[in-house]
Amino acid sequence: MNEINVMTTDELQKALEENKDLAIIDVREDEEVAQGMIPTAKHIPLGHVPEEVDNLDSSKEYVMVCRSGKRSMNASEFLNQKGFKKVNNLEGGMLDWKGELVF
């Protein structure tokens, strides 16, 4: 198993500003994402990740997001086990996110 990369919220903000080609997956529950998501993020609750994994492009770079970074690390490890090579876990999750939100 490959080591999971960790991305800080500042690094993600910079990547978004530079229009870096990465996909953000928010694994929080519905009531949590109702409080706002990172722009461009796709919502896939953690419990739905196993059934959605076949719809994801394993050649893309992903950033997994949750409230604090624990659930997204679980999702990151799952994708890694499924052969995804470019998976990042957002350190500190939405608790540390200072950027724009979409509702």
From TrEMBL:
Alphabetized CDD domains for the sequence: RHOD
Family matches, as PROSITE patterns: RHODANESE_3 (PS50206)
Gene3D superfamilies: Rhodanese-like domain (3.40.250.10)
InterPro entries associated with the record: GlpE_sulfurtransferase, Rhodanese-like_dom, Rhodanese-like_dom_sf
Lineage top rank: taxon: Bacteria
Domain Rhodanese: 18-102
Name of this protein: Rhodanese-like domain-containing protein
